[in-house]
Amino acid sequence: MSDVISLLPQVIPNYLAASVGAVGDTGHHGRDTIDPDTLDTDAVERIRRHLEIAGVRAPGQSIVDVTTASSGGTEVVVVNDDMPLLVEAVLATLEGHGLSAVRIDHPILSVTRDAGGVLTDVSGVRSGTLESWISVSALTTHGRIDDARLRTDLLDVIGRVADVDEDAASMRTALGACASACAADRPADVAGLTADERGEYARLLEWFAGNHFVPLGSARIDASGHADARLGIYRPGGVEPEFPLVTEMPMAPRITRVHLETGIQRSDFPILLQVPTFDTAGTHTGEYRFLGTFTPSGLHQTVQDVPVLRRKVDEVIAYAGVDDDSFAGQSMIELLQNYPLVEMFESSAAQLHRRLEEMLDAVATRSLRVFLRINPDGEAATALIYLPRDRYNTVVRLALQNAVTDALHGSALEYSARVSEMPLAQLQVMVRIDPELARSRGPGDIGTPLHRQLQASLSEAIRSWDERVRELIGTAGDGMVTMPRGGADAMLRLIGSLPTDYKDQRDPAAAVGDLAQVAGLRPGDLAVALRQPGDGRAEDAGAWDFALYLCGETATLTDVLPVLHSLGLDVIDEHPYTLVRPDGQSCHVYEFAVTLAAGMSVYAPDGHDDLPQRFTQAFSQVWRGRAEVDRYNELVMRCGLDWRSAAMLRAYGGYLRQCGFPYSTDHVASTLGRHVDVTRGLVALFDASFSPVLADVARREWVLARLRTDVGAVISLDADRIVSAFTALVIATDRTNFFVTDSGDAGPAICGDDGDGHRPVMSFKLRPRDIPQAPEPRPLHEIYVYSPRVQGVHLRFGDVARGGLRWSDRREDFRTEILGLVKAQAVKNAVIVPVGAKGGFVLTHPPAPTG
């Protein structure tokens, strides 16, 4: 082995050449004097290891070494006689094992070995045997690799490549013999071909036998389907040539695309050439079958020089009624030149003409066209898609591939794309199909239901974001969204100013909702929306998309999260967007993916749910400061209340706190949320007592009786005390301004309306002597005033009483302060009136100092 390693300085320059053409260049540029110490350590070690593995090799032997490191990387080393398709076969096998090559070295070296196979010389001069030395570094995508199995599969596929290489000349000879037989005279036109047509097909087979087709396997099939003369991958023990015989008239050579795992190509869609055979009497005796692929020269040869195809081109031009040197004729020839060869062979001139007309129309209308070729016998289907060049990108390609796979129920997808200076991009998608299902659905020709369905699906897939939004805006007036001032035109004007990242992230349907809101906002305005999620999150999981729209203002998570949490939602994701309108006004869209907080539930009886409207109203009022941020807001979700009903219960809860009620706001609100029937009963009793529309004595008695029944069913002592206290408060209420809708004369700083015509300050005239929770002494009448900014009470111990008003700074117990003052007032007023009165208020959110 030490003698072999001594060849390292000689191997390195030839190894690094990495191509056959550079191997013999050892006498120039100093390659033969490269010092290993000057090279990258990893490169030298890789070459040294390859040299050690190649040190001893018998003639014709295949050496394969596979090593997977603990880090997951796999190193594959191959030493073999040089032959075509070897690297392709190795890479195909690696991909079949879930490996992706990240580096490959493939020097073709001229070597000399002694009688024992020991490497003695690696000469730049081509005086020895050419060997392929392949080194691949790969990473796995499927977990641990079975090195032994991979090595076995590599040896097997290298053996297949050797079979193909050994039989290549024989297969080309068989192709030539088929060409001669095709051109030979027959006693009768049993194939349905004229002598001239047979001659053209004979020239086509000669074209295949030349440097235009790489045969991978061939076999002779008799009329009964038995195969002999099997060569290449069709050798006995290899791939079986199982395809139906060509029996349709005319019985000409047939070229099709089939699905077959050859093992030596990364593509599983090789080309099948079937050549019908006849005996001297003209009887059909079977066929010769060739499997392979086109060479680069075959793929790129001018179609007007390819036998059979050149006549089809002439016929297509004749169908169109134009000269081949005219602009229209040259346009058609250019399209045909870029048309897949197999598709041209499989299509008649009439079919090609129809497809060309469709393609030219696609250029004029900037639309998509798809042409289907379904081959149930070969378990393959091809969708040839043409679309405007500027529409083609990776996202569109993936969408088109998915649409084809879904429509054809395909698998094992492969594609090729061609994007050039031509106005149409070409995408060829090949999939494996189920033969029986394919036969049941028909051929997929132009105009068939399958073709129309796929055409519509693919056209939808390439529509741009702007087009989808414009179409949705056109139908938005049908109730999809509330149209802004200016209608659809105002929304359409916004599309051109939308940033690219917004279009990339925002679904068109959601964007229409955004545009409807943004177009109608004035500076300082806000809008909110709660929608069912568009990302597949289950509705019954309590998941929504919540959007906040601000014009001329911004918001932070610190601003928004407390409000959403008070409404019983947790935020799991956020996406902010900034949209600049044509008028220069910046509008901000904040979208949140929200879900119910732990312990929360949604009240939606009988499937009727007006939650989005109630929720958005509640959020808006809290955001504007017209409702407080606390757990009473949860009642909107849990009990189906609107924001004002929740605020009414909050006011009653605030009064109880002033009376020394021992339970915290969170505990009280949580208790009301858990006892939905009681909470809704409290609101119903309040409405039946004071609503100008619903108030009715009989109704009030019925609601009160049901409420007392529900309260009696409460088991927890704490909960019973809470709901009983609220019940007593509502019963002890004489009057309220809750339903007053005129704004009165009060100034806007405190008493402006709350946005829906109601006063933001609620007042309740109470009978404290009917409220067990009120501390002694209890006044005859009491008025409790509540708003998020101010709270106050007025205590009156008689129908006629006298007293003043106090500005208190005792937010938590200002009623206690006022109660003490009213007792002193009663003593002071004893000689004037027998009882006293006193009022007081506290500012919960005083204005910011201006001095």
From TrEMBL:
Residue span(s) of domain NAD-glutamate dehydrogenase catalytic: 708-847
Domain NAD-glutamate dehydrogenase ACT3 stretches: 526-599
GO molecular function list: glutamate dehydrogenase (NAD+) activity; L-aspartate:2-oxoglutarate aminotransferase activity
Protein name: NAD-glutamate dehydrogenase
Coiled coil (residue ranges): none
Domain of life: Bacteria
Domain (NAD-glutamate dehydrogenase N-terminal ACT1): residue spans on this chain: 44-138
NAD-glutamate dehydrogenase ACT2 domain residues: 369-466
One GO-annotated biological process of the protein: L-glutamate catabolic process
Pfam families: Bac_GDH_CD, GDH_ACT1, GDH_ACT2, GDH_ACT3, GDH_HM1, GDH_HM3
